[in-house]
Amino acid sequence: MINQLRADFYRQTHTFGHYLLMVLVAAFSIITVYSKNVGGIMVSAPEDYLGRLAGMKWTLLSGTRGLTISSSVLMYAFISIFIMVIGYEFSQQTYKNTLVSGISRSGFIIAKFMTMLLDIFFQVLVFYIAGILTGIAMGRKTGTDWGNLFSTTLLTAIIVAFFISVVFSMAIVILILTGSLIGSAVFIVAFPMLITILSSITNWSWLKYIDFFSVTVKISLKEITVNQFQPYIWTSFAILAVCFGLALTIIKRKEL
Predict the structure, then answer these.
(1) Residue-range definition of the domain harbouring residue 48
(2) 146-176 burial, b for 16+ CB within 10 Å, e for fewer?
């Protein structure tokens, strides 16, 4: 498993797409903070707050919150991570060569999940750091003390990366089950849109626990407490665990 992790990270550090994605993520962050234009894809934020955010004098803290509201866009950009880490191998069936080389199937799946999570977290950190540096370059005040700014940014980055990873874990199950890179990519694109649409036309209260980006915005705006957040995080952990178990079960039954 360790060798698989090393191989994955080595391959990515020598892949042009990895650095191109980093540049695009940083550019999106810089443009958002500089222009003060925020908004995600099918993600709701309080209209009154968006109005105040557009009209207020931005600080580094409000810039971080603005980036969080816009963070749903990252999931679509991170489809490239999904492809680089696991998508291409399954669509081309080259993963079989890796398994034949000696790594266990469980080790292979664990390595892929870990690589994907670390890649996503790194890119999300780039997203927030680029925004903070842009705010500093523009001479904006912190809006809070530095300790609170960094802790808020780090916590938000972890939550955003984790929620994106949960969606990607479901896409991995679809990929392993069908072998279709297009099908799993379509799922990633459609999932947040479908949840938002269903939430608006139904009274299914349980949907809020998988409306990941809306809850991320609420956390950033401190609209929910730590205790209120616990059901969301446990639901996400449960989905991640189920997807890992399904992925492992399916790949164990596949013939090489």
Answers:
(1) 2-253
(2) eeebeebbeebbebbbbbbbbbbbbbbbbbb
- Go through 70-83 and write b for each residue having 16 or more CB atoms within 10 A of its CB, e for each that does not: bbbbbbeebbbbbb
How buried is 106 (Cβ within 10 angstroms: 0-12 exposed, 13-18 middle, 19+ buried)?
middle
Give the other-Cβ count within 10 Å of 227's Cβ.
Answer: 7
CB count in 10 Å sphere of residue 102: 8
Pick from 210, 180, 177, 178: nearest CA to 193? 210
Q: How far, in Å, CA of 56 to CA of 10, rounded?
A: 44
* 202 band by pLDDT with thresholds 50, 70 and 90: confident
The sign of the CA dihedral 205, 206, 212, 215 is positive
What is the radius of gyration, based on Cα positions, of the chain? 19
**Joined tokens for residue 12:** 């990515």
pTM reported for the whole predicted model: 0.88
Domain count, the chain: 1
More confident residue, 80 or 204: 80
127 confidence band (pLDDT: 50, 70, 90): very high
In this structure, are residues 160 and 124 in contact, taking their beta carbons and an 8 Å threshold? yes
| The pair of three-digit structure tokens given for residue 61, joined into one six-digit string | 């803290």
Q: State residue 14 phi and psi, 5-degree precision.
A: -110, 20
Lowest-confidence range among 6-20, 104-118, 158-172? 6-20
Length in residues, the chain: 256
pLDDT of 42 above 60 = no
55-94 pLDDT per residue, tens: 678 899 989 988 988 888 898 999 999 988 888 777 777 7
Selection from 29, 19, 14, 118 nearest residue 74 by Cα: 29
